[in-house]
Amino acid sequence: MMNETISIPVTSTSAKGRVLLVEDDETLAGLLARVLRTDGYQVEVVESGESLPAGSKLSAFDVVLTDVHLAGKLTGHEVLKHVREVHPTMPVILMTAYADIEGAMSAVSQGAYDYLAKPIEPTELRRMLSEAIARRRFSETKKPATDARAAAWARPRAGAAVPDRPDQPHH
Questions:
Q1: What is the pLDDT of residues 64-111, one digit of tens each?
Q2: Computed over its alpha carbons, how large is the radius of gyration of the chain?
Q3: Which of 7, 21, 41, 130 is deepest in the core (most CB within 10 A)?
Q4: Percentage, residues of the chain above pLDDT 70
Q5: Contact predicate 118/96, CB 8 Å
Q6: In this structure, are residues 125 and 116 in contact, taking their beta carbons and an 8 Å threshold?
Q7: Strand positions, DSSP E, 17-149
Q8: In what order do the strands lie in the sheet with 18-22?
Q9: CA distances (Å), 125 to each of 35, 45, 77, 134, 154, in order?
Q10: 53 or 2: which leads in pLDDT
């Protein structure tokens, strides 16, 4: 079996991102991991859905990249469902050798970030990972307005005069 598992520090920001790769094909997993590590990503490889890290360890990743057809009891769709339940903002990208429009639409409707057809085009994978990680990081940095004035400014009342700045009075 594969011994590609590496330790991923939760606070690391030096890499482009932390990728959990769920792939039972040892050759493909090794190739994808090598390509992504060369590009600056931290990668942990697991060969089945049953090997997913638990709760807080799963949150150490920025994105999950999983094959649809996996050895073991869990499919990639079930991995997607589990990740979405535990970490709703974590992007999950599904990969399959049996790509079709219905499968892609189904995956996205279930909450997948995107759907990749094998053979994987490295340029497309890099683009997709970069966008998914950027979107997740952005969504996690957005905080609700805590200042009452800023909150009021963000929600103008219907028919109210809108000032040029929040500190100017309404006329």
A1: 999 998 988 999 999 999 999 999 989 999 998 877 777 777 888 889
A2: 20
A3: 21
A4: 74
A5: yes
A6: yes
A7: 18-22, 42-46, 63-67, 92-96, 114-117
A8: 42-46, 18-22, 63-67, 92-96, 114-117
A9: 10, 16, 19, 14, 37
A10: 53
- Biggest distance spanned by C-alpha atoms of the chain: 72
Lowest mean pLDDT, pick from 28-32, 56-60, 159-163? 159-163
Number of neighbours of residue 27 by Cβ within 10 angstroms: 8
Q: What CA–CA distance (Å, rounded) separates 51 from 156? A: 49
Higher pLDDT, 121 or 148: 121
β-pair type (63-67, 92-96): parallel
Q: Count Cβ atoms below 10 Å from residue 163 Cβ, excluding itself.
A: 13
The 8-class DSSP code of residue 22 comes to E
Its pTM stands at 0.73
The residue type at 82: H
Chain center to CA of 153: 32
The per-residue pLDDT of the chain, averaged, comes to 79
| Helix, strand, coil percentages, rounded to 5, for the chain | 40, 15, 45
CB 65 within 8 A of CB 19: yes
The single-letter DSSP state of residue 157 is: P
State residue 169's pLDDT score. 52
7: its two tokens: 């330790």
